[in-house]
Structure formats: C-alpha cells, structure tokens
Design goal:
The structure holds two protein chains of two kinds.
Chain A lengths: L4 E9 L2 E10 L2 E6 L2 E9 L4 E6 L2 E10 L2 E6 L2 E9 H15 L2 E5 L4 E6 L6 E2 L4 E7 L2 E6 L4 E6 L6 E2 L4 E7 L1
Antiparallel strand pairs in A: 1-2, 1-8, 2-3, 3-4, 4-5, 5-6, 6-7, 7-8, 9-16, 10-12, 10-15, 11-14, 12-13, 14-16
Chain B lengths: L10 E4 L3 H13 L3 E6 L7 H5 L2 E4 L12 H10 L4 E3 L9 H9 L3 E2 L4 H8 L1 H10 L15 H11 L3 E5 L9 E3 L2 H19 L4 E5 L5 E9 L5 E13 L2 E7 L6 H17 L4 E10 L2 E8 L6 H8 L3 H9 L16 E8 L1 E2 L5 E2 L2 E2 L2 E3 L6 E5 L6 E2 L6 E9 L2 H14 L1 E3 L5 H7 L3 H4 L7 H5 L7 H29 L1 H16 L1
Parallel strand pairs in B: 1-2, 1-4, 2-3, 4-5
Antiparallel strand pairs in B: 6-7, 6-8, 9-10, 9-12, 10-11, 11-14, 12-13, 14-21, 15-16, 17-20, 18-22, 19-21
The chains are: A mainly beta, B alpha+beta.
Chain lengths: ~170, ~500
C-alpha cells in the first residue's frame, strides 16, 4: 500500500522562515527546503520523543504541541516552531497586511509580572522609549517601544502576571 | 558574644526552597536531625517538600508573602516545635531581624549572630571595619545615596565608571555598572527597585569600578569558642550582569603568596567581628592588589567546590557550631586536593539574551561518574515558577588538575539534558571552548564583554524544521483518521483494512 502524500509547508523559527516540501512514501519522508533534500527515517520512542535519521545522520528530538506551535527540543536547545500549510498562508498574509499595516504589537519576551507602566493609551512614544517594566525570576526588564508612534492600546495592568508572547501593547507607527 | 542561642537541636526548619533546601536537609538527616519544609502555593510539588520529614504551607506565591515573611515562618517553627532554622542563601539568610526573632523565640538560627549580621550586612559598616583593620578597600561612598542626582554628583567626583550596589545586597541583585552620567537615571531606578524587591531596602551606595578585576572569595567558619578557620578561596569571576555562573577552586589567577595574603586578610576580618558559623569574605583582585568587597554572612551557592577540594561538609560543620560545639578541624589540617568547578544550571535562554525560561520540565538526564556531583532542586514533571531565582541545579566537577577537570566538565555537561524549558547548558559548553577560560585568564566582566550570544548552526536549525514537519504530518494524518472514524462509511473501511491485516 503506497500512501504518497505531498504537502507544501511554511515553517517559522523565530525570524527565520523555511519553505518546505514534504512527501511521505511508505514509512519514509522526503523533505526539501531550499536547495537541500533530506531522506528521513523516523521512529517514535514514546509519545513525544523521536529518533530521526536525516541523510544518515541520527539525532533525537522531543516534540510537543503547545497551543499554536510546536515546542521542539534537540540537544539542550528548545525552540518554538510554527508550521503552516502553504494554502492557508497565502490567504492569511493578504488579510494581515491590509489590517495590520503600521501597527506594531509589543509582546512579552518571557512569562512574568508587570511591575511598572510608564505610558497610557494615546501617548506619543519614541523608538526604544521604555513602555513598562516586567519582572521574572527576580530580574527586572524594561520593555521598549519598537517604533516612533502613538500608543494605541495597552492590554495589561500593573501587577498582572502574563504568559510568554502575551500582547502587552499596540503602537501605531507615525 | 551578644545573643547566641545554642543547644543540640533535633528538629530543623529549612527556611528556603529548591536545591539548597534539599542540600541542607541531606546533611541534617545524616546528623539525625528531623527536617521541616515550608512552601509557597506554587512550590507544593517542589523537591524540597518531597524530601522533608514534615511540610507546612506558607500561603501565597510572592517572596514577600512566603519565604521573606518572618512572621509566618516563626509561627510555623513554633507550632511544629522546630528547635532551629537554617535560612539557606538569599531570602532571609542575611536578615538580622529574622535572626533576632529566632533568638527571641528560643529558636537556634544556623548562621552568624544578629550583631555580626548587622555589622557585615550593612556594606558601609563592613567597609569601615575592614579599613580599621588595615584591609584595603575600594574608593566609594561611605553613606548610602538616596537619589540619582546625588549619585551623579558623587560619581563625577570619583570618576566614571562606577558601580551601584544595594546597601542590603548580595548575589548581584540591585547592582549596576554605570559608565556615564546619561546612564545614571535609569540604572539607579532599576537597581533601587530590584534592591527593594530582593531585600526590602531600596538604598544604594556607589563604588569606583575596577577595570579588570577577579572576584575571589574566602570561605571561613567560626565556632562559639572564638576559633576561626578558612577553607581556601573560590574564584567566581565568571559572571553575567554580576550574577555568578561558574566558580572554581583554587583560583587560576593568583600565586601562593597572594593567596596567603588574601586568606589571612579574610581570617583577620572574621576575627575582628567575632564571626560565628559559616561565611564568605569577598575580594576584588587585580594584579597583585586586592580589595575587600563584602562579607556574605551565610552559606554560599558555590560552597560545594570548597567541600570537594577540602573534603569537609560545610553544612554539617554549620550544625556542629550551632549546637555550641567546638570546631573539630584545625587550620593546618585543612588541605586542598585537586581542582573543582561548579556550573550553575539556570532556566535562562542563552540564545535569547538569557531571558528567563520558566515552565514545565519534561525530561532530565543527569550526568554521572567519578568526580561528578549534582545538587538539584528539580525533577521531570516539575514546573519552574516565575517568582524565584532561575537556578535549577549545580553540577560540581572534580579532578586531579584543572586541565583534567575541564575535560571532565565537557563530558559531564554533554551528558546533561533538560527538556521542556530552555537552560543555559549550551552557554557552559561554549565557555569550556574559550581559550581565555581554558588558560584561566578571565575577569568579572569577561562574559559581558566577550559573549555576544549563541547562534544555532544551519544544520541544527534544519533538524528543528525536520522534526516539526514530521510531527505536523502525523497530526494531520491523525485528524484525517479521526474524521474518517466518525463517519459511518469509514467503519467499513476499517473492517476492510483489518481483513488485509489478517491476511498478512
């Protein structure tokens, strides 16, 4: 029984983007990204641990779903990896550019507590002006404005505990 | 000696959490002392609770409502009839008021007397004592400074760069290097606020920053009979933003004659204040010059490397002197053998400017073998909370020579795996490849000046793409199967497939 299935995916790790073509034939995968092609064999050790051999090189990966992305862990490195089907991507990206042009969402770089807020909605802010201070694990970090502009929305209050990547504020570039 | 309480206690409350609470309980158990844990709401499943003979909730999560709350802790100690309290490091370890409360309630405080803590904990006071005893100090403000403007004036006087330090501080909290007048405002605000939340006191003082110093500290311990010994030095110059990351003993940066001067100065300082129990005298060293920095009137995070090279269990000695007994070690018998390193494993992301990385630990594989000690406060399935220090565990390495210890460290740290959260293990592996680290020529800002972040290699990133792609396909296939199973037709399909399987 040959169940060849092909997919074109967009894989995002931080700022990096990869266009990936994958075919599954029998138990093996052929994965291409850019000019590279990998013949991949994969076995599961348990629900989230995989032993993978890509072009004869073995490695171990732990993969689990975490909301909209995968948390992947290889050799003491942990990354949030986003995988989208290309068909969906072309649809989304059009909508996003129309609505979100000039809007910058400031997100929490880590989970933590909002300690101080220096601005209010409607304020004119300069690029890298401190907007608020977050505390996590006893260290305080200033969260700064990404652009010159106006503070359109503030999502958090002082004392509030937020998750990593939670929306903190929206700044409209001016 | 003022208010020293001692008796051979049989029940101990550990007023701390994580790896240090576990480490203290281990020593207590070996000495036949019953152990009591206290815990915040989010620490219910913490390892120190699972290690203890008894455990009591503190209610709440923030340090102020839990491990810094003197009233609650004393109340628990009295109710459970604990005869002694060990404060560990951080939290209330150097809080003289806490030590006094213990004393008032007839509880032995395993540490220095409140009087010593007051003298040593106040950095300004400690400097005065050092000066009076002929121990060199760094130029700086004798009194705490209360606002950024005053700080600017003072800094211009002694010249930039300067160091802002919490009056009540230690452990790198509330500490900032300020290189110019422009940086002062924001640095002062952050340092002062950090000092308030870490120690409950926002006062800061200023010191001239020394360009390329090493941070070298001396372990001391004293008993109630006036005996004070040192257990050699530790080099803690591998720091990031004043937070120690790697420590070693002996220091590769000093010769035997300077070593002797430094340990002698430490003992002199300790004798000057009639030091009781374990403590550390810290110095900054540049070339052949050394300056007194501060006394940490407590057990240090990095105490295991001293234990490793001297063969002396410091926590057990703490109990011994807290029992009011005489130290059973003499200076001339405290030898050091071989070389030890400590690597602190933090929940921090070295690929993302060391951003804190709390969360659920999925799996841990620990290193082992001769000369490898692991002091850990975590386990697979444990969720690292956001409220406290990012320290997860310490890997202590020993071998005959520094060179051999480095090789062993590489081996051990490559064996160590912690998944679910990002840790600084890749940073340690980077450090162990740096020529300046390997030949021992580093200083306190070595990391701040030479470490510019880690980049994953192309091949590593490709592996992430491959793994996620496979998982994605697996999920879509599973969804397909689920949908098929739900439709009536698919049952026939499954039956058909089963037929095929049977025939095989």
């Amino acid at each position: 029984m040959s169940n060849a299935s092909e997919k074109n995916l967009l894989v995002k790790i931080g700022e990096k983007e990869f266009k990936v073509n994958v075919t599954k034939k029998g138990g093996k995968y052929i994965i291409s990204m850019g000019d590279k092609r990998f013949s991949v064999d994969c076995e599961k050790i348990n629900e989230c641990v995989y032993t993978i051999i890509a072009n004869e090189k073995p490695f171990e990966a732990e993969v689990e779903r975490k909301n909209e992305c995968f948390k992947v862990y290889i050799a003491n490195l942990s990354k949030d990896v986003f995988v989208y089907d290309m068909k969906m991507v072309s649809l989304f990206s059009k909508v996003e550019t129309v609505v979100r042009k000039g809007e910058h969402t400031v997100r929490a770089p880590m989970p933590g507590k909002i300690v101080k807020i220096f601005v209010k909605e409607g304020d004119i802010v300069k690029k890298s002006q401190p907007l608020l201070t977050m505390e996590a694990m006893k260290m305080e970090n200033e969260i700064r404005s990404p652009v010159d502009g106006k503070l359109k929305k503030l999502f958090v209050k002082s004392g509030q505990v937020v998750e990593s990547r939670a929306e903190l504020a929206i700044v409209i570039e001016e | 000696m003022a208010t020293f309480h001692c008796k051979k206690f049989k029940k101990l409350l550990v007023a701390n959490r994580g790896e240090i609470a576990v480490r203290i309980m281990r020593a207590a158990k070996e000495m036949g002392i019953r152990t009591v844990a206290i815990y915040s709401d989010c620490d219910r499943k913490s390892l120190h609770v699972r290690h203890a003979d008894e455990a009591y909730p503190l209610i709440g999560n923030t340090p102020e409502e839990t491990y810094l709350n003197i009233e609650k802790i004393i109340k628990i100690a009295k109710e459970c009839k604990a005869e002694a309290i060990h404060p560990g490091y951080g939290f209330l370890a150097e809080n003289e008021q806490f030590a006094e409360e213990c004393s008032k309630n007839g509880i032995v405080f395993v540490g220095p007397t409140p009087d010593t803590m007051r003298k040593m904990g106040d950095k300004v006071e400690a400097r005065k004592t050092a000066k009076e005893n002929g121990i060199p100090v760094i130029p700086g403000s004798e009194e705490p400074i209360s606002d950024p403007e005053e700080a600017k004036r003072f800094a211009k006087n002694i010249g930039f760069p300067v160091m802002l330090k919490a009056k009540a501080g230690g452990g790198g909290k509330g500490m900032r290097l300020v290189c110019s007048e422009e940086e002062m405002e924001s640095a002062f605000r952050l340092a002062s606020s950090e000092a308030r939340s870490a120690f409950g006191d926002p006062s800061l003082y200023i010191e001239k920053a020394i360009q390329k110093p090493r941070h070298i500290e001396v372990q001391i311990i004293g008993d109630s009979f006036g005996n004070i010994v040192h257990l050699w030095e530790r080099d803690c110059s591998i720091q990031r933003r004043h937070q120690k990351i790697v420590e070693e003993s002996p220091s590769p940066g000093i010769g035997d004659s300077l070593r002797k001067k430094i340990v002698d100065a430490a003992v002199k300082m300790a004798k000057a204040v009639g030091y009781l129990n374990a403590g550390t005298v810290e110095f900054l060293v540049e070339g052949e010059n050394f300056y007194f920095l501060e006394v940490n009137a407590r057990l240090q995070v990095e105490h295991p490397i001293t234990e490793r090279i001297t063969g002396i269990d410091l926590v057990k000695k703490q109990f011994l002197v807290a029992w009011g007994e005489k130290l059973d070690i003499e200076q001339e018998n405290i030898k050091r053998v071989g070389h030890a390193f400590e690597f602190r494993i933090y929940a921090e992301d070295p690929f993302n400017n060391f951003a804190p990385s709390p969360g659920l630990i999925r799996d841990i594989k620990l290193p082992g073998g001769f000369g490898v000690r692991v002091d850990s406060g975590v386990y697979p399935g444990y969720e690292v909370p956001i409220y406290y220090d990012p320290i997860l565990m310490k890997i202590i390495i020993w071998d005959e020579t520094r060179e051999k210890a480095i090789v062993k460290a590489k081996r051990a740290l490559s064996e160590l795996h912690i998944s679910g959260i990002q840790t600084n293990i890749p940073f340690h592996l980077w450090l162990l490849e740096q020529p300046d680290f390997i030949n021992g020529s580093y200083w306190t800002r070595f990391i701040d000046e030479t470490f510019h972040g880690l980049e994953e290699g192309e091949e590593e990133i490709e592996n992430f793409v491959i793994a996620a792609t496979i998982k994605y396909l697996e999920e879509t296939e599973r969804k397909k199967i689920v949908t098929e199973t739900l439709s009536p037709v698919s049952k026939w399909k499954i039956a058909g497939r089963m037929e095929v399987v049977k025939r095989l």
